[in-house]
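User: Design a sequence. Structure:
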């Protein structure tokens, strides 16, 4: 299996300037390819392959107007066009939503670096048109890299590469582990393990309060410096927006770290299989009262991380059917309680069985697919 290795890089000011050029060119090429596909589709034409679009862009580079494209690596532009075409294909295959144009303000700054031209030596890495850049830790040498990407998280630059690793044979127990995820608790396991909602801790609440205050300050400053229909971005606004970016980054890192800890703890119990309910995140997000809480829990991210860690150690990962009544079924007698409400946190059955609602659901999930 291929696992990603993400390493912080430390560019100089001149190198960082070149990195931003590559980011901007990659975003422009992606939007250009997407606009071509949109225009072609409206006129009733067939899908344009990325090879044809690349040839067209090569012709444009010969003109004086687009000579600036030579300032970055050709592979950055090629891959950005391929990414746009792949996104469009997935949309028509109903595997993803319709691709949107990348905004300079909102999109994640990143670009592709050719894996063949990526060279590594002690605590340094060679990035095309940028040069040798220092790294915070050593990248494995003498191996084949896949899909190298350079990205910026609002504070630091990172290089992520895919490295092939063998599946580690692990001696597993005969335990079938059911996991019920939710908003009250991140995850409740059938063996009694419970992972709390990280968004309820003091650290997160304090940072979110600070974030709200900073956002109000920025909003007021924009209104104060408004010139007609135009908003003026002053030096103080730039400083505040930088602080907001860093706070968002910090919150994301805390949540990601918690999910990594939870999924690793689950895998370390060495069950023979892990069963989770199929999550309809898109449908859950339509509930305006719970949408923010669901987004902060990062349930899909939890599933993805758990899935690849199970694969790494040879644990079977199973998703229960969407309509499997894990919450409404009694784990003792099997009777289904159709009138169960979301506010009922204790499951009470006619047979006299009483249990925490989430633990009852996780026990039912652990039995999913097993022969009676």
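Assistant: Done.
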């Amino acid at each position: 299996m291929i696992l990603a290795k993400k390493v912080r890089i430390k560019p100089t000011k001149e190198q960082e300037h070149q990195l931003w050029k590559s980011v901007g060119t990659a975003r422009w090429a992606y939007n250009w390819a997407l606009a071509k596909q949109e225009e072609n589709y409206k006129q009733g034409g067939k899908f344009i392959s990325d090879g044809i679009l690349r040839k067209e862009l090569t012709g444009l580079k010969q003109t004086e107007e687009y000579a600036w494209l030579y300032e970055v690596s050709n592979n950055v532009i090629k891959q950005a066009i391929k990414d746009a075409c792949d996104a469009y294909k997935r949309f028509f295959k109903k595997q993803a939503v319709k691709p949107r144009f990348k905004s300079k303000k909102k999109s994640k700054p990143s670009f592709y670096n050719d894996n063949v031209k990526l060279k590594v030596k002690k605590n340094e890495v060679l990035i095309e048109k940028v040069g040798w850049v220092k790294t915070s830790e050593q990248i494995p040498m003498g191996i084949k890299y896949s899909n190298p990407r350079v990205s910026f998280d609002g504070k630091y630059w990172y290089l992520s590469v895919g490295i092939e690793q063998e599946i580690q044979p692990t001696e597993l127990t005969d335990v079938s582990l059911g996991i019920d995820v939710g908003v009250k608790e991140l995850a409740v396991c059938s063996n009694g393990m419970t992972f709390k909602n990280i968004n309820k801790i003091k650290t997160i609440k304090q940072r979110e309060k600070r974030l709200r205050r900073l956002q109000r300050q920025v909003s007021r400053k924009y209104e104060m410096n408004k010139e007609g229909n135009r908003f003026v971005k002053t030096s103080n606004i730039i400083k505040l927006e930088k602080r907001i970016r860093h706070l968002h980054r910090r919150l994301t890192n805390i949540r990601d770290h918690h999910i990594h800890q939870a999924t690793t703890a689950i895998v370390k119990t060495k069950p023979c299989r892990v069963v989770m309910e199929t999550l309809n995140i898109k449908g859950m997000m339509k509930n305006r009262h719970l949408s923010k809480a669901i987004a902060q829990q990062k349930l899909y991210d939890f599933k993805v991380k758990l899935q690849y860690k199970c694969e790494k150690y040879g644990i079977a990962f199973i998703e229960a059917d969407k309509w499997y009544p894990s919450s409404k079924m009694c784990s003792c007698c099997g009777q289904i309680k159709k009138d169960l409400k979301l506010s009922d946190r204790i499951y009470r059955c006619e047979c006299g069985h009483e249990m925490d609602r989430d633990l009852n659901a996780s026990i039912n999930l652990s039995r999913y697919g097993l022969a009676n």
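The two ends are 34 Å apart (CA to CA). The CA atoms of residues 154 and 249 lie 7 Å apart.
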